[in-house]
Design brief:
2 copies of one chain form a homodimer.
Chain A: H1 6-22, H2 29-36, H3 40-46, H4 50-74, H5 79-95, H6 101-107, H7 114-134, H8 140-159, H9 163-177
Helix pairs in contact in A: 1-2, 1-4, 1-6, 2-3, 4-5, 4-7, 5-8, 5-9, 6-7, 7-8, 8-9
Chain A binds a DNA duplex (18 and 18 nucleotides) through helix 3.
Chain lengths: ~190, ~190
DNA sequence: GTCTATAGGTGGATAGAC
DNA sequence: GTCTATCCACCTATAGAC
């Protein structure tokens, strides 16, 4: 393959950054042009409409996330340790001053085209399914509660510029999920 | 006082609706003009800039919420019952297909003027303080965890149009906070 | 307090040269 | 693949009549 996809990737990176830090409706092709250092109309060559870009970003984000989940699956550790690893995926996002891409999109979901809405819901459903099979009670309701806490925790922590709050929230959550896990240290 | 504040209130209602369902950056004065049935420039008479409207909406929302908290305080019930009442405040918002105004604003917080950012953080801080004094362990970290779960739960439930998910998430949360509370029925 | 008219800017998107 | 030039719709906001 000799076709360079470099600009395409840079555009995805820039769009993802903007959505995670400012929201889908608060960035424009002009913003991306400035970041990637090409002119505005050139973006349309790679992604004809803003929706196309939104869908591509979300699909890549979901694929990356799913790949991380399979990596956690390979580990020989307890479900609780894997839950820590899972929470750390979120923490890595927060540590670069972003919230989850799909949480950022979810708050504005009714302003988005249907195809993108579907992609967002798939991300959450994938995560619910993975967590459901991880936890001892195998209940989707518990999995949804865990995801809600992590997503809400990111929004709270980021909006106050207090990343450490998230760490404490995760610790609270895990303590409640496994009252005997107090010996664990989550950093 | 003979000055009618009717239009002012209608504008606040309309702006609040738009922010909670579509986000701050996805609505315009044209949208409000259509809802309130006046012309676009008339809105500027009441709220010169969009920011002024945003601040007024957030302040009113916060005041209303705080008033509800003092109403809960007056009740002669257990902290757990009061926590149910608190969760029900969120559920009422969700039942009309909205998320929390301040969660909707918080995801886009870095696109907003500083004065509005402060107002949003105050809402969360008020809630953390109230919850901290409600719960037995009196820890802000636990209070933040509870708020995160409720806010994240609303976003998850609303983005999937599955309001019942929120009810289940609250039940999971309360079960973890008080393992002996299984007899409670939360609807 | 609400209106018409309009300014000045930016949004996403297209045409066509190179 | 990237550019210049340009379109039209929409944005927030102002001026000034009624």
């Amino acid at each position: 393959m000799t076709i360079s996809t470099d600009t395409k990737d840079k555009l995805l990176d820039a769009a993802q950054l903007m959505i995670q830090t400012r929201g889908y409706n608060a960035f424009s092709y002009a913003d991306l042009a400035k970041i990637v250092k090409i002119r505005k109309p050139s973006i349309h060559y790679h992604y004809p409409a803003k929706v196309d870009l939104g869908i591509a970003v979300t699909r890549r984000y979901r694929d990356n996330f799913l790949h991380c989940l399979t990596e956690i699956d390979k580990l020989q550790s307890s479900w609780l340790d894997k839950l820590y690893d899972y929470a750390n995926l979120y923490k890595e996002v927060l540590s670069v001053n972003r919230i989850c891409l799909c949480a950022a999109l979810a708050t504005d979901i009714h302003t988005l085209p249907r195809k993108l809405q579907t992609e967002i819901r798939s991300f959450f459903n994938d995560n619910v399914d993975w967590l459901t099979s991880l936890i001892p009670n195998k209940r989707k309701e518990t999995a949804r509660m865990i995801i809600s806490t992590l997503q809400g925790g990111m929004i709270l922590a980021k909006s106050h510029n207090e990343i450490d709050w998230f760490t404490a929230i995760v610790q609270e959550l895990i303590a409640k999920l496994s009252p005997t896990a107090n010996g664990h240290t989550y950093k």
